[in-house]
Structures
1.
Amino acid sequence: MPKKTPKLLLWSTALLALLLVGVLAARWLWPEGSYQQLTHECHAEGETQHCVAFLPSGERIELGRQGALRSLALQQLWLDSAVNLTDARVIMEGRDMYVGRLHYRLQPGEQSSWQGRGAVGNCIDDEMPWLAHYLFSHRGQQYRISLEFTIRDGVF
Amino acid sequence: MTMSRLLLITSTILLALLVANTLWIFRPGQIAAAKQASAAEVELESAIGSWQLASLEPEQYALIFFGYHRCPDICPLTLAHLGRAYQQLPIDLQDRLQVVMVSVDPRLDDWQELFAYPPLFHPSFKAVAGETEQVDQLVAHFEAFYRVVDLPSSGLGYAIDHSPGLYLTNHRAERLLTLVSDDSHYLLTELKTFFGDQP
């Protein structure tokens, strides 16, 4: 048994080193990895997309987007709930390919209502699906709701 | 020191680092701050010498835009709208805001032509260029994007697909505001609102 102790220690050390590297890499690559994704349902009316989601505790969240589905067109963004939501913002990114991430602030309005504006765009593709991630906190927990919309234009 | 003792000490240190990482030392904010500091130090060339965000005064801001001189559409469109918005800003706010176009085509852009391009939209607008690695560092920091696309049918034979964003930042390379629009009134409103909140 005396030779087994160094071997066990060697493997333990290697495992700890790997864990440390993994944790550091994950924090570097995904600094916003602690958001809990919420499912939602949407319906569209012309240029408007209304969506509803529910917190795990059952509270209703309403959110949406309104704007022409073309590059650079301003999208009105909103997030409403009867409960207190904090630190709300929106990040937009391509659904299928990385074309950067666009961060937009949402400003608090009356009660727990948040509003903002933002746009997307790229030069080459005529049609491109985007995701608008609505990020917010409630009672210390961070949540994310991801709306999908498709830009069709080729304006450039 | 025996091998066993050495491994035991190493394991203990690694375990302590893991715990520290979880508790405080390597918080995401700390890592983001390190990335931010290095983005502020990125040094590029402008018409009048070297340029970096860290050289801005504390009360100054930069509105960064990634583009290229021969860009046929999005760059002139963005610069034209921004030029209109910028002209309507009060003079004291214009003095605090540098509009900087960062070339994402530094190897093919003629730098002298590039430097002369943004001032066509406003005399204070400037262009900067540098090594690809330095430009990429800024692109990554602002989570922007570009890619070269072969377009055999075009005069250049290629185009660069790039983010349309305008990124408001400061001497610490903080990401303060992202603006994307073909609406100069919106750009003006957002900039005025931002500066209205600043001391």
2.
Amino acid sequence: MKLMPVLFCGVMLWLGLSAIAPLTPIAIASPITQAQLDEITTQWQDSTHALADVNCSSCHQNEETQEFVQAPGYESCQSCHEPETETFLLGKHGIRLQEGLSPLTPALARLPMHAEASDRPLNCNTCHDVHALQTRPAAVDACLTCHNDTHSNNYKNSPHATLFSPAGELPRPDASAVTCATCHLPRQTLGETDRVFVNHNNTYTLLPRDRMVSDVCMNCHGLEHSYNSIFDDDLVEANFDQRPTQEMETFELIRAFEQQRSSQNAPETPPE
Amino acid sequence: MISWLKQHCSIQSFIKTRTAIIVLIVGFVIWFGAAFAMDQKQIFLPGQTSEGHHLFEASCSSCHEGFKPVSNDNCNRCHEAELAADVHGVKKFRDPRWAVLLEDIDVLTCTACHNEHVQMFGRGVHLHPDLCMACHEGIIQGDLASHDGFTPDGCWTAGCHNFHDHRSISTAFLTQNLDQPFMLPTPEVPELGVEVTLDRAPTPDLDREFLGGGT
């Protein structure tokens, strides 16, 4: 009988421990081979980083302590790419890092993800090949490495995809290409300045959908086409493989309101 | 004999109950202690966390300061950009005409509308879709002929209104951009400029370090 409390304690301890999820494996940087180093050096020599005088030590050496850093984190990128990193940390991709948790992995996502990618930790260099520095692979291929939902997988059927394939070559998509990043990590101007940056907060244009209409869709498409498309769930799933068929009632109301206003020539308080 | 047995049994059962309670308490202390010690605080979550927040739900202190109510400052730490042009912000309610409406619902407090850890209606942090009716009920009850009889939960779910950010959905914006063609005259996204300072790559300034040679 005296065994019972001991057994009970054991069961409770086991329950407590079972609440603890398996710890996310963290990639520990280890030294590389001479061949790998040569390849990386070649990639870097052809990159914009090299021509902008960003050398090995710019990222791989702590500025204050002069200590060598084998695998630099997002803080290293942040020192030059401030708005990109700041916005990355506010979106779903980076929020765990901002809040001091382990990096996001697809295993934690509620959206469908590729099983083989489930343990990939999400840092800047998950999508960006930081040595070759080409943003073209980061614009579509990197997304589809993890994302496995209908909308993502249907990108290839979208007219947007045909604009991307032939449009320009490495290193970055030109202004006529429409990639995953064009809509979800859009190029925007920074505050009141003319400086174009890439907003890496992937949730910013996602909801409410009308934010994507003005910030993204209307770079190319008319207002009604944009609204009628983005508020059509099936068309979103199909990744806009055809023109919208719905006509949102909101535009009927706006037309009626305008007609009434011009005929009466006496402004009524518009619906807010 | 029988009465002796009865007495004996009741004492025994009392001891058993007491032991069970103590063991239960010890068990819970170990369980919660382990959750804290191993930084696995998800077990304290009172319900399902919203789409946007579930990825960092183990970090209670991201939103909660102890047991105090979640403040606007906690939300603004991340959501400043979304609220940059808030039409239902502090400025609007400085006007006494609108200030009285705060008595119906204090919309200047994020948590008056947005609730976390409860499943209601998915749009960011959960909120009831008919909240607009706290102030704007008249709109669907005859004050505005065109909206007469509309459902109370349709204002934003139908894609017509946005409580915080009017920029791309206001009547003025929609009127101004009516009847545009499928493709605008110059369709393109902003070009990303990159400035370089050198004609050719400099000599790599680190080498042996990458091969494990140290600094």
